[in-house]
Amino acid sequence: MRRNMFVCFCVWILLAQIPLIYASMFFY
């Protein structure tokens, strides 16, 4: 159960990075 929560957290962080990468590509 804890491992599943960890994977979910990792995926959430990964999804949070996508807009930041997009913004970086757009502004630079």
Classify the helix fraction into a percent range.
Answer: over 70%
**Approximately how much beta-strand content do the residues carry?**
under 5%
Give the overall form: rod-shaped
**Tally of alpha and pi helices:** 1
- How would you characterize the largest beta sheet? none
- Strand segment count: 0
The termini sit apart by 41 Å
The ordered H/E elements are H
Description:
The chain has one domain (1-27). The chain has one helix spanning 2-27. It is mainly α. It contains one helix and no strands. The radius of gyration is 13 Å and the shape is rod-shaped. The longest helix is centred in the middle third of the chain and has 26 residues, at 2-27.
Main features:
28 residues, mainly alpha, 1 helix
List the SSEs and their pairings.
Blueprint: H1 2-27
Describe this structure in a few short sentences:
The protein is mostly helical and 28 residues long. Helix content is 93%, strand content 0%.
